[in-house]
């Protein structure tokens, strides 16, 4: 019985420590990652803006549903494995070089913007850069995001999937 009580106390202490450390971490974070792709910017632009086709090349996206335009902004809902339904809206769009998407549900425990920049290089290929300006509200999930999953994970997985869509294995850069 003593060992069981000790195990329960240790587990509670661990959970409290994780929450306290998470509460001390900044709520907001910024992550920037980039890749080079052989296709020109227009082809990359087509891939990242044709959200109806995301489930075909993004293995974490189960389905996509369009959102009705609100205040002149178009958007969609992604059903993402392990994260549920995430509504996104386009807040800026300058084809084929600049796109900003925003998580449109303030009740989620995370949120923020993704800024996509597509730049042609001298060979006509593309440099794709994503900057995530995000936040994690819940201290427990903030700890997990920082120390377990990694704050780069979602951007990295997206860029790897984008590369694979074009038949490329990409090298991620800061």
Provide a descriptive summary of the structure in words.
With 174 residues, the chain is an alpha+beta fold. It has one domain (2-165): START domain (Alpha-D-Glucose-1,6-Bisphosphate, Chain A, domain 4), CATH 3.30.530. Helix content is 34%, strand content 39%. It is built from 5 helices and 7 strands. The chain has helices spanning 2-24, 41-49, 54-57, 139-149, 153-165, and strands at 28-37, 61-70, 73-80, 84-94, 98-103, 110-120, 126-136. Strands 1-7-6-5-4-3-2 form a 7-stranded antiparallel beta sheet. A hairpin with a 6-residue loop joins β5 and β6 (110-120). The longest helix is centred in the first third of the chain and has 23 residues, at 2-24. The radius of gyration is 19 Å and the shape is elongated. 18% of the residues are buried. The model has no long low-confidence stretch (mean pLDDT 94).
Helix-strand layout with pairing:
Blueprint: H1 2-24, E1 28-37, H2 41-49, H3 54-57, E2 61-70, E3 73-80, E4 84-94, E5 98-103, E6 110-120, E7 126-136, H4 139-149, H5 153-165
Antiparallel strand pairs: 1-7, 2-3, 3-4, 4-5, 5-6, 6-7
Helix pairs in contact: 1-4
């Amino acid at each position: 019985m003593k060992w069981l009580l000790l195990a329960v106390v240790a587990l509670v202490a661990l959970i409290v420590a994780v929450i306290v450390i998470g509460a001390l971490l900044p709520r907001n974070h910024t992550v920037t990652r980039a890749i080079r792709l052989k296709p020109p910017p227009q082809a990359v632009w087509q891939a990242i803006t044709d959200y109806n086709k995301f489930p075909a090349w993004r293995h974490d996206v189960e389905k996509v549903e369009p959102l009705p335009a609100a205040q002149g902004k178009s958007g969609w809902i992604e059903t993402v494995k392990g994260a549920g339904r995430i509504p996104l809206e386009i807040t800026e769009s300058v084809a084929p070089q600049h796109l900003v998407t925003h998580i449109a549900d303030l009740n989620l425990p995370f949120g923020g913007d993704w800024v996509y920049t597509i730049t042609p290089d001298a060979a006509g290929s593309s440099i794709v850069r994503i900057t995530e300006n995000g936040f994690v509200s819940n201290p427990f999930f903030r700890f997990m995001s920082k120390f377990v999953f990694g704050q780069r994970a979602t951007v990295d997985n997206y860029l790897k999937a984008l590369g694979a869509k074009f038949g490329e294995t990409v090298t991620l850069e800061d």
